[in-house]
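for the recovery benchmark. tokens below, seq after
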């Protein structure tokens, strides 16, 4: 499926439905929604109790009749009805009223590289349910590359790595199109799970999902590969007694646990480079790899890639919102016309 820049300029809103966060950009206005893709539902009445950050705070803290749902999983909308209800609430009444005034609402959405037709259909249906008459799909890799200002339209290679929550997408782009790309089903969630599993196995500690980030931050500054403070204190619940307990965790061992999922990402990176024509590999050795996506902020991830590949690695200025900002720039017409149309799927 291809979509021209001209068609994208006619769109009114750009949506990035991610496994972790939902972002919405309104043409001429900017980023209006950047919230967790979470909705809390009252199972007795079927009503929505909360969405976004508020619903995420409820995770693991709700009574049985409240279900915390994640309508997007693995980069795909898995519950169209819930995704529509979540988006409606995230947009708010005022913005929805403004959008309703558009006689033929057009929407653009990011779609993961190589998304199958069913996944694409789910994204389109979600937005059609919100009133969009037409939905244009753009490959996340193209949107993210534009969002972080990579010169994708040039006849030199640029390499981008979109590190999301559910997937990592890696591509070499040249002349406005994808030359080679892979999508690895490993992202921030798998890294968090590796940390949770490590603490459960080696310290018999159940870590609340919200506590994974502080542990990652304890590794900050030391990187995944360098030596830092030997231990850090972590609070959790004892697997056996169920009581609150804190343990001194060996940071080197946590780094080791994180390495396992990251190896799969390195494999994907190697595959893209191996499939890439030699001239373009020479360009990348000079220009390096641009990291975007929320997981690009994982402490030391860039350093690990630098050591594994030997090429410069940079993190985009606002890595988490690059994709939606790139899509938004296409709507606003502030990007150079691409020599070739962006490709979706
Ligand atoms: N400072 C940080 N350090 C480590 N990880 C982080 C940080 N900030 C965000 N993340 C991770 O980034 C992920 C979210 O990234 P992003 O918002 O790009 O995902 P997404 O677009 O919702 O997912 P996907 O594109 O895979 O559907 C989460 O897994 C989160 O744990
Ligand atoms: Mg994403």
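predicted aa per position
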């Amino acid at each position: 499926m291809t979509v021209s820049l001209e068609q994208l300029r006619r769109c009114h809103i750009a949506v990035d439905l991610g496994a972790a966060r939902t972002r919405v950009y309104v043409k001429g206005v900017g980023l209006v929604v950047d919230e967790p893709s979470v909705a809390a539902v009252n199972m007795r009445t079927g009503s929505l109790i909360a969405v976004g950050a508020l619903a995420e705070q409820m995770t693991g803290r709700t009574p049985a009749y409240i279900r915390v749902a994640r309508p997007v999983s693995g980069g795909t909308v898995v519950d169209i009805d819930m995704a529509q209800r979540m988006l409606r609430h995230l947009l708010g009444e005022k913005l929805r009223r403004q959008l309703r005034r558009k006689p033929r609402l057009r929407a653009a959405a990011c779609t993961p590289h190589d998304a199958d037709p069913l996944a694409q259909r789910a994204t389109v249906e979600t937005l059609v349910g919100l009133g969009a008459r037409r939905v244009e799909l753009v490959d996340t890799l193209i949107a993210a590359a534009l969002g972080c200002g990579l010169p994708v339209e040039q006849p030199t290679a640029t390499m981008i790595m979109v590190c999301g929550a559910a997937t990592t997408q890696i591509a070499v782009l040249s002349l406005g199109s994808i030359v080679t790309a892979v999508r690895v089903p490993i992202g921030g969630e798998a890294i968090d799970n590796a940390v949770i599993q490590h603490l459960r196995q080696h310290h018999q500690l159940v870590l609340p999902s919200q506590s994974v980030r502080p542990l990652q931050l304890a590794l900050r500054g030391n990187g995944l590969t360098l030596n830092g403070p030997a231990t850090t204190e972590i609070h959790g619940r004892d697997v056996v007694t169920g009581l609150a307990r804190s343990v001194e965790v060996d940071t080197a061992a946590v780094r080791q646990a994180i390495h396992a999922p990251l190896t799969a990402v390195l494999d994907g990176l190697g595959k893209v480079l191996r499939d890439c024509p030699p001239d373009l590999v020479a360009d990348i050795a000079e220009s390096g790899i641009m990291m975007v996506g929320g997981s690009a902020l994982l402490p030391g991830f860039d350093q690990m890639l630098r050591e594994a590949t030997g090429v410069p690695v940079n993190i985009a200025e606002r890595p988490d919102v690059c994709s939606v900002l790139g899509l938004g720039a296409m709507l606003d017409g502030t990007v150079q016309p691409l020599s070739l149309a962006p490709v979706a799927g």
